[in-house]
Amino acid sequence: MAPVLMASTPASMCTPLKTLNDSLSHRRRYMKHNFPINYAIRVHHEEIFKLSNISKMKLKVEGLDELVLQRLWFQVNQGVLKKIIRVLPERHPSRPYTAELERRFRDAEGVFVQSHPAEVFQQELPETIQDIWDQLTEEPERVPVSSWRFASPKSLVDNLCHTMCCLFWECFSSTVSSLDYCAVSHSKKGRKTQSPELETAPTEPAEW
To answer: How large is the average pLDDT for residues 172-177?
Structure first.
């Protein structure tokens, strides 16, 4: 089957993504200040999804379709937001914010699916991307210990925001220097590039 050719970001995606971005602008308060210092949650290695991951995949898979990366972005961050909500008690001050963030994310995902022909989501993924997809959807008890990592809620949501502005840059080109978001060093402009993914896990977080 010949690949379906289309613009990488349908115009209909911009409203829900900008609404999501509005919520993300408050992430420092809710994802950092309301958590204990050095608090971290357990996630798949693939869920630490940074701009550098996008660059590596584009180098590894020749002619990688932006739409494939967008699909992967939704799959990755769907799991990330669910994991953050899961660790928050009902009365935690960040729970309503995180639940709203997750709802707006699902709204954007719904528009994303509706904006493309069904056959787009039936196409075979490149092997590298399929391997990541399979690991993300693996039953937790079957995931090797070596495949888990620990990351702070703030860093995970930062990654969500930065990679969104890179992969859906058409929606943000009039408000931010969006192309800069596709550079590895964006989140620390004027300073050193981002540090590599966590290779060792911090101490297991205490129960709330």
So the answer is: 64
